[in-house]
Amino acid sequence: MRLPDSLMYENLLFNINKSKSKINDIQKEIASGQKLLTPDSDPTAYTRLATAKATRSKLSGYQENIELAHGKLSQYDDTLGSVYDLMLQLKTTTVAAGNATSGDNGADVYKAKVENILKGLISLGNTNVDGTYAFSGSLTDTPPFETADNGQYITEVSYKGDNQSKIYNLDASERMEINLSGREVFLGTAGNDESIFQITMDIRDSISENGVSNIDDHLEKLQSAMDRMLLKRGEVGNDVQHLEDLETFMDTMGLNLDTRISGLQDTDLAEAAVKLVSMQTIYNASLAMASKLGQMSILDYLR
Hints:
By secondary structure, this protein is mainly α. The chain is built from 8 helices and 8 strands, in the order H-H-H-E-E-E-E-E-E-H-H-E-E-H-H-H. It has helices at residues 5-32, 43-98, 107-125, 182-187, 196-206, 215-265, 269-295, 298-302, and strands spanning 128-129, 132-133, 145-149, 154-159, 166-169, 175-178, 207-208, 211-212. It has a domain at 72-219: CATH 1.20.1330.10. 22% of the residues are buried.
């Protein structure tokens, strides 16, 4: 049974337009490098892609928070290490001053050494990174420690920060509270007996040509402050290790998500090129058929 001419031309035109549309889609896919340009390209794959991208976006936010928290804690760790080194230097200087020979005019030299250590401790307490003070609590624009002096030596160190914490969301269920205020680190909780600055000033003021008065008491307080510093640094180190483990886990998860997104979204150029050639072949064949039909005479139809 012979198909009506109108139906033959209609089917042929449909196939030509369909092939041309597919060729355009493949060319766009190759040009953009993405095979899911619109939801109707593949609704199921498009939904999976949208879900994977949303998960990746959340993960990137957590990774950024972890990086910020890690940087903050690493900064604390480095500073606490430097503080401990100065405290160790203070201990050595105190012992040396206590053993100094009477009348050797070394008291002023030792006082100057201790004063320099004090200034170093205050400088570390006022650590500033990129315009942010590390030990001011939430008052990051305010230097945490201010000093008063008598024209020769520092006589008072006061704290101008607060004790507010910074909360970091590390994942959907874990939050880390980070706050090493200057009060907690340098002043302690027991008044002048724990204040690193006051201990240092007391040692300086106790130095004379006859040694260091009450040296055992000073060294005991200093050792207690050093032990507290080591303990605090150990706590920071544990948090740093936890963040590094979490970073490794998040990096692996991010890589898996990136691979999944790429598989759903990115064009396989070699495959797309094969599809393009195939569709162009079909398209050209349809055009050739249309041209042949257009040239047929009435005798061709009567055969």
